[in-house]
Write a structure and sequence with these properties.
Layout: H1 3-9, H2 26-29, E1 45-49, E2 52-55, E3 60-63, H3 66-69, H4 78-90, H5 101-112, E4 118-122, H6 125-142, E5 149-154, H7 163-168, H8 172-175, E6 185-188, H9 193-205, E7 209-216, E8 218-219, E9 225-226, H10 229-242, E10 245-249, E11 273-276, E12 287-291, H11 311-326, H12 329-350, E13 355-361, E14 364-369, H13 377-386, E15 389-390, E16 392-393, E17 398-401, H14 409-426
Parallel strand pairs: 3-15, 5-6, 5-7, 7-10, 10-11
Antiparallel strand pairs: 1-2, 2-3, 4-12, 8-9, 11-12, 13-14, 14-17, 16-17
Helix pairs in contact: 4-11, 5-11, 12-14, 13-14
The structure holds pyridoxal-5'-phosphate.
């Protein structure tokens, strides 16, 4: 569930100790000027270092949100500080009218470290998915000779907030009020191979033909739901048999967050297309769509982005990639993830009526609240914030843990202590 919906359903948020600093008053300095598309927690953050951030009143928080799975290297990481400083003094933006060497370097790194052959750069996850949807449609028209291509996506998926990507998103709450939606999408339950095969048969009987299947390797917003290996392997087989494309939305789970560089590596498959954004620039806006050469059907003029792949964003993203390698962060993600899940499971055992399950990969984990408890993820998040720990819901019943990939063992223990205490009080 989005924070805005959470806040609407959780009046208690307003009762958090409100920021009363003279320096920043939301009612005076913010709300009159900014569109109210977000429900915001009543703290104003102004500084960060490592896995910690500070608000305008100097209060410290342990940041297990990381800009929603985005600040890969935490805050003010020396590698980012150096690259940002250096690149802004050298060249920050030109245009794709010209060659941009940093764009080539980043594409080379991504291609050499993944199953893809080529990259296209944009600025966000939604845009990366738009690019993937356009590429799949062009592939359908030019290679598969499909006139009415359909892309199958999953229930509870999340693919972004543009019109095509809210349509791709299999959650009606994101689509409500924005019809007419974009044609050419069909939904099937996630991790359910029989339902998917039925959907394919149903579409085959109609005049709509499937061009691609678009799935998250692990559903993030939909509740931190890891993909099932057998399900994805069968889908890969089906795509190969039918010559259709498998697209993985790696916007949240990619870039090392799962303990492997790409979420799909946990499933033993290779997608034809995959998309990146959140963690790629470590918090500097950049998105990417990558594909294997057989489906690279874009010609000059087919797709573009003014800012996409500019020297600044690409240099920073490359330094994030190189830092993941140099600092051996995948090992840290695996070890800290094990530690976090073990600690959360111990808390779950103490509170069997409140906590149903702990699930996730690497450093993307969800603590799933029991259906029977009136407690919501928003309640847990609010009490954690009050204790100096930032967390984010992934739906009404799942508390999400997505700290920076540099998080230390001590910081995991500190977060576990806060959560343990919160459940002792709440549950
Ligand atoms: C966040 C997210 C997006 C959208 O990314 P934006 O940068 O907000 O457009 C798309 N897909 C997934 C899986 C995401 O988690």
């Amino acid at each position: 569930m989005s924070p805005e919906t959470l806040l609407q359903t959780s009046p208690a948020v307003a009762e958090l100790p409100l920021n009363s600093s003279d320096a920043f008053d939301p009612a005076v300095d913010f709300d009159p000027y900014v569109m109210a598309t977000y429900g915001r927690y009543p703290i104003a953050l102004e500084r960060g270092k490592g896995c910690r951030v500070w608000d305008t009143q100097g209060r410290e928080y342990l940041d297990f949100v990381a800009g929603i799975a985005t600040c890969t290297l935490g805050h003010a990481h020396p590698a980012m500080v150096e690259t940002v400083t250096q690149q802004i003094q050298t060249l920050h933006h030109v245009s794709n009218l010209y060659y941009v060497p940093a764009q080539g370097e980043l594409a080379k790194w991504l291609v050499e470290h993944s199953s893809a052959d080529r990259a296209f750069f944009c600025n966000s996850g939604a845009e990366a998915n738009e690019g993937a949807i356009k590429l799949a449609r062009k592939y359908a028209h030019t290679v598969l000779n499909i006139e009415n291509p359909v892309i199958i996506t999953a229930h509870a998926s999340f693919h972004g907030r543009t019109l095509a990507t809210i349509t791709a998103t299999g959650q009606p709450k994101y689509q409500k009020g924005f019809s007419p939606l974009v044609p050419g999408f069909f939904y099937a339950p996630y991790n359910d191979i029989d339902a998917l095969e039925r959907a394919l048969e149903e579409l085959d009987r109609g005049d709509r033909q499937v061009a691609a299947i678009l799935l998250e390797a692990l559903q993030g917003e939909g509740g931190v739901r890891p993909g099932n290996r057998a399900y994805f392997q069968r889908i890969r087989q089906i795509c190969d048999e039918k010559g259709i494309l498998l697209i993985c939305d790696e916007v949240q789970v990619g870039m090392g967050r799962s303990g492997k560089l790409w979420g799909y590596e946990n499933l033993g498959i290779e997608p034809d297309i995959f998309t990146l954004a959140k963690g790629l620039g470590g918090g500097i806006p950049i998105g990417a769509m990558l594909c294997k050469s057989h489906c690279d059907v874009f010609q000059p003029g087919d797709h573009a982005s003014t800012f996409g792949g500019n020297p600044f964003a690409c240099a920073v993203a490359l330094s994030v990639c190189q830092t993941i390698e140099r600092e051996n962060l995948l090992t840290n993600v695996q070890e800290r993830g094990e530690q976090l899940r073990a600690g959360l499971r111990a808390i779950a055992e103490k509170h069997p009526d409140t906590v149903a399950e702990v699930r996730g990969w690497g450093l993307i984990n969800g603590l799933v609240l029991a259906e029977e408890t009136p407690l919501t993820s928003a309640d847990v998040v609010k009490s954690a914030i009050a204790e100096g720990l930032l967390l984010v819901p992934a739906g009404p019943k799942v508390v999400r843990f997505v700290p920076p990939l540099i998080v230390s063992a001590e910081e995991i223990n500190q977060a576990l202590e806060v959560i343990g205490k919160a459940f002792s009080l709440l549950g």
